[in-house]
Hints:
The chain is α/β, with parallel strands linked by helices. It contains six helices and six strands. Helices cover about 50% and strands about 15% of the residues. Helix 2 packs parallel to helix 3. The longest helix has 21 residues.
Amino acid sequence: MSQSLDLINNIDTLEQELATIQHTGSKRIAMLGSRHVPITHQNLIEMMTYALVLLGNRIITSGAIGTNSAAIKGAMRGDPNMLTVILPQSLRCQPNESRQQLEQVMHLVENPGNDNLALAEASYICNKEIISRCQQLICFAFHDSRTLLQTCQNAEDQRKVVTLFYFD
């Protein structure tokens, strides 16, 4: 009985992944990743996001430096209206190097109710919200990026298509 349930779940997952791949219309794609990203990788993430926006996809990300900042740059270059940034805390809690970029974002969601939480905890909650809004997750992480890897697992549990790139 357990094997037949596993088979049904695998078929359901495969069916959903095939539908997502074949879907030629716009998608809501979450772009998340590490803050500690070399500039060459940031340039690639920016170009990928730019291309995704030009193809009509909506991008959802958070506001950290590194991966998320590169995704914001690419989306803003393509079409600022296709970008939503969800912050783990309020804008005033964001680092100065991020704040100037974030102030230019048209669709910015702040979470001031999380200002009293540790950043890791607020980020985990924020990532859950981002995943709930997307159809697909593209994530850039290291093998020890616990919060990001947990986010990928949460997305898979919700049957989202997950593409995970490792930096190491």
